[in-house]
Amino acid sequence: MKATKEDIFKIRKPQPRYSVIKEIEERFSPRHFSSQPIPEKDISSIFEAARWTPSGWNFQPWYFYWAKKGEQSFEKIVSCLGEYNRYAEKAPILVVACFIEKVKGRKAYFRHDLGAAVMSLTLQAQHLGYYTRQMGEFDEKKLIKLLNIEKAHNPFVIIALGKLGDYAVIDQSLLKRELDPRPRKEDFAKKI
Ligand SMILES: Cc1cc2nc3c(=O)[nH]c(=O)nc-3n(C[C@H](O)[C@H](O)[C@H](O)COP(=O)(O)O)c2cc1C
């Protein structure tokens, strides 16, 4: 089986019913990344976008550990991913997104806030031509130990970040997964 980038786009790129910003129209979560390195200035912009995310009580309850392909810490992150998520080892950058459980007797927003920060990062990355895929399935205990993650930081998702891979060169089983349709429910907002 063969597929071009255009075939993948036909299936995976959003087909919005109404006008949306370019980054949303282009975003999808690929499993096929190019290993092309990301320039430092782009990495800085991507994390800067997360920094300006709104958060409950302005607690900013997030922390990101990240590593570049080729580094020991990158391999450590990869070793915590299940077989199912090992496609991520091709990406030039892996990010471990952690929440900080700040509550202090108030309503707890930390998971919500981390999600918002990850989305800010994702949209900034998309704006710069990079794709992301979040992975919630990993060995958390092993990751905490291997990366020496601080006690207050709770790893929640690992994010693969990079340019889209070349679909002319892709493992067949991965291609099959990449050709999965990307349905969206239609009924999710009601005028009351
Ligand atoms: C919290 C979270 C956890 C996820 N975990 C995984 C995962 O472990 N493995 C994987 O391949 N994709 C994972 N995904 C990616 C989703 O499957 C993907 O975002 C969803 O199918 C919608 O596709 P789209 O992002 O292309 O719109 C996760 C996404 C989120 C937000």
UniProtKB/TrEMBL annotation:
Protein name: Nitroreductase
Species this protein is from: Candidatus Roizmanbacteria bacterium GW2011_GWC2_37_13
Example of a GO MF term: oxidoreductase activity
Signal peptide as annotated in the record: none
Pfam family, one: Nitroreductase
Domain spans labelled Nitroreductase: 24-73, 89-163
InterPro entries cross-referenced by the UniProt entry: Nitroreductase, Nitroreductase-like
Domain of life: Bacteria
Family matches, as SUPFAM superfamilies: FMN-dependent nitroreductase-like
The family this protein is said to belong to: Belongs to the nitroreductase family.
Keywords linked to the UniProt accession: Oxidoreductase
Upper lineage: Bacteria, Candidatus Roizmaniibacteriota
